[in-house]
Amino acid sequence: MRTPIIIANWKMNTNLSDAVVLAQSIKSGIENLEHIEVVLCPPFVWLYPVFETLEKVLGKKIKLGAQDLFWEDDGAYTGEVSGKMLRRMCQYAVVGHSERRHYLHEDDEDINNKVHAALRNGLKPIICVGEYKKMVEEKAGRGRPDKISVNTNILNQLTKALEHVSKKDIENVVIAYEPVWAIGSGNPASGAYAASIINQLREKIFRLYDWDTAQNVRILYGGSVDSKNISEFIRQPEIDGVLVGGVSLKSKEFIKVCEEMAG
Q: What does the subunit section of this Swiss-Prot or TrEMBL entry state (predicted)?
């Protein structure tokens, strides 16, 4: 049974006091929820204050994640943060988010190196993959993802991100499908569209590893998720959770998302 997971990506938001208050509020709001995993990903500079705020419940109700990490553990890499630095506080690290691919020009090799850096430091990488334009079969006209486009875009990203990742390590990997056209747009993918892509991602993991491994890897959806549309994704058994952006900065609405996921 794959445990549903909700990942809160705060991106480059909050000040120190806001981050602590937000973490405290979420901690209180989900304390009675069961059968879900909640991961908070604050900016690097607020990781330790949030870690202190959550220390007594970390690893139980809530886990902490980094929004990125560098592929080397030490060295003359000004401004970078390594998995070795993060591993005492964090359990997860986001890798390959579309905003980093776009604004910071991260490529598939960079992302693969970061996946390995996370794994060797005991962090679970959250590998983000997704397309920039909606891939719809024009002839079908039913909004189904075009398989050729999926293969050349999303599945290719996944394959390269998992290069040289062992069968043992893949069990510690989380995949987040995030269509770039949906992020921050207020127009999420439909549950059926997301589920179709996620099915193909799971099939790809099966081809790279085996069936049991593919069934154990959690694959999430991210892109304009909120408390009003979360039910559409929960209804899809293929979707194991959500990666939440803007709504994760609003404690009441984020808690509602967690409540819906917990059932």
A: Homodimer.
